[in-house]
Amino acid sequence: MEGEFCECRPLGFVIGLPFALLSLVFCPVGAVIWLLGSLMSCLCPCWKCCGEISNVGVSLVKFPIRVLTWFIEKIPC
């Protein structure tokens, strides 16, 4: 029964929310990087670095979610 209660960690969510909102600044930057990397890799598929740049852009877009889940996992019940 105790395991079910600890699945929801509202304190971790509340503490992590300002940091997740701050990291939302990186989302548009990541989207632009992903778009440019995708376009460049379509124009010249021999440029492997453009694929890696696209992966960095996707990581930046996912950054707020990873920050929030990190805080939720670190704060106990």
Can you walk through the features of this model?
- It comes from Vigna angularis var. angularis.
- This is Transmembrane protein.
- The chain crosses the membrane at residues 12-36.
- The protein is mainly alpha-helical and 77 residues long.
- It has a domain at 27-77.
- 83% of the residues lie in helices and 0% in strands.
- The chain contains 4 helices and no strands.
- Helix 2 packs antiparallel against helix 4 (48-74) and helix 3 packs antiparallel against helix 4 (48-74).
- The longest helix has 27 residues, at 48-74.
- The two termini are 13 Å apart.
- Residues 1-5 have low confidence and may be disordered.
Keywords:
single chain; 77 residues; mainly alpha; 4 helices; disordered N terminus; membrane; Transmembrane protein; transmembrane helix
Layout of secondary structure:
Elements: H1 2-6, H2 10-23, H3 26-43, H4 48-74
Protein name: Transmembrane protein
Keywords: Membrane, Transmembrane, Transmembrane helix
Transmembrane segments: 12-36
Give the distance, in angstroms, between the N- and C-terminal Cα atoms.
13 Å
Ranges where pLDDT stays below 50 over 5 or more residues in a row are 1-5
Structural class by SSE content: mainly alpha
Rg is: 17 Å
pLDDT averaged residue by residue: 78
- Helix-residue proportion: over 70%
What series of H and E elements makes up the topology?
HHHH
Largest beta-sheet details: none
What's the count of strands? 0
The number of helical elements comes to: 4
- Strand fraction equals under 5%
The shape, in one word, is elongated
Organism: Vigna angularis var. angularis
Keywords: Membrane, Transmembrane, Transmembrane helix
Protein name: Transmembrane protein
